[in-house]
Amino acid sequence: xxxxxxxxxxxxxxxxxxxxxxxxxxxxxxxxxxxxxxxxxxxxxxxxxxxxxxxxxxxxxxxxxxxxxxxxxxxxxxxxxxxxxxxxxxxxxxxxxxxxxxxxxxxxxxxxxxxxxxxxxxxxxxxxxxxxxxxxxxxxxxxxxxxxxxxxxxxxxxxxxxxxxxxxxxxxxxxxxxxxxxxxxxxxxxxxxxxxxxxxxxxxxxxxxxxxxxxxxxxxxxxxxxxxxxxxxxxxxxxxxxxxxxxxxxxxxxxxxxxxxxxxxxxxxxxxxxxxxxxxxxxxxxxxxxxxxxxxxxxxxxxxxxxxxxxxxxxxxxxxxxxxxxxxxxxxxxxxxxxxxxxxxxxxxxxxxxxxxxxxxxxxxxxxxxxxxxxxxxxxxxxxxxxxxxxxxxxxxxxxxxxxxxxxxxxxxx
Length: 414
What we know:
Blueprint: H1 4-38, H2 40-60, E1 66-72, E2 83-93, H3 97-164, H4 169-204, H5 208-215, H6 227-237, H7 239-260, E3 265-273, E4 280-288, H8 296-363, H9 368-404
Helix pairs in contact: 1-3, 1-5, 2-3, 3-4, 3-7, 3-9, 6-8, 6-9, 7-8, 8-9
């Protein structure tokens, strides 16, 4: 019976850890969502969406009567009252132009909705990439600072040995050069960290503390679903493809609207004259055709057809780019996972070697150059682990955002 206790405790710890990571992912995704929708680019897309909604409203009003009012004064010194005239025109048949215009406005509103989601998704991807870059650079600064300190201590040891005549001045000069090199690398990393931190601040705005609090609770990301799952899901739910599909339908509606200009318009006219000899109300049926100057209507139809073909090619291009980006992220994620395993083992082994060489150098069994190389290899191994961790997180979240957007999807990212 007691043999089951460790197994039960282990299972409890595993479930608790999984639940905690699920909460951490949900918290991070919520923070990214808030910042993405608060970004000025996303707010601009929202305003364009409001404009599209008003265009839809204006298109639907075309089914209603069109009023016009005229007030004419007597001309040429004639004596008489002003002529006040009100005319209402109610279209009965417009060759499909009104329905096509409403359909085009509906599709453009749908395109605006997907454009809003697309901008938010792109902003979220930038935010995630910048977050992991900032995290990677921050950790690199810490490792490189330790490397600078290790090189400084070794230079001091060589300096003392040079004073005692054990080491040459050339050894001391080379140690100083190695120290200057790692100090220069540290300075470059600190500069990149400052630039990335400013970029992160611009993207996150006032919500940066929320992002830091949510992001620090995350661990390495893994993708449980197969490759085809991510490819198919992303293509079905990608907002850019949905936007371009809606624009394609809007272009088709524009063709029908242009074709309707060649058809006659049938309207009910109500003319109310308030003054003069013709005072009263008249009602009649009006049939009119306004094909435009020359063959301009035919040219307009051809232009609309060309725009539709262009929209179709744009969508095919976007679909191809999406597949390429997904394939690249999946390959990078797999490479990062493999690199994590190798780099983690290498980090421990190189650190053990560096510690051993440092002890042997004091005892006189290793040269200072061997110690320097061992310290540098240990530092590079630690940096490789950090690079792999950052790439793992970036690719996992990019795939999640492209497949599921900014909404929480259980089990999408582990």
